[in-house]
Amino acid sequence: MWAPVQELAGNVRAGRTTARSLVERSLARIEAVNGRINAFVEVHTSAALARADAVDAQVKAGQDPGPLAGVPVALKDNMCTVEGHTTCGSAMLKGYRSPFDAGVVERLHAAGAVIVGKTNLDEFAMGSSTETSVFGPTKNPWDLSRVPGGSSGGSAAAVAAGCVPVALGSDTGGSIRQPASHCGVVGIKPTYGRVSRWGLVAYASSLDQIGPLAVRVADCALVTRVICGHDGRDSTSAPVEAAGIDRDLEEGVEGLVIGVPAEARGGGNHAGVASALEGTLGALRLAGAEIMDIELPHAGLGIAAYYLIATAEASSNLARFDGVRYGHRASLLDGDGLDALYCRSRAQGFGREVRKRIMLGTHALSSGYYDAYYGRALKVRRLIKGDYDAAFAKGCDAVLMPASPGPAFLLGSKSGGGDPLAMYLEDVFTVGVNLAGLPAITVPAGFAEEGGMELPVGVQLIGPALSENRLLRVAGMVERAMGVAGRMAQPF
Question: What's the predicted TM-score (pTM) here?
Answer without folding.
Answer: 0.96
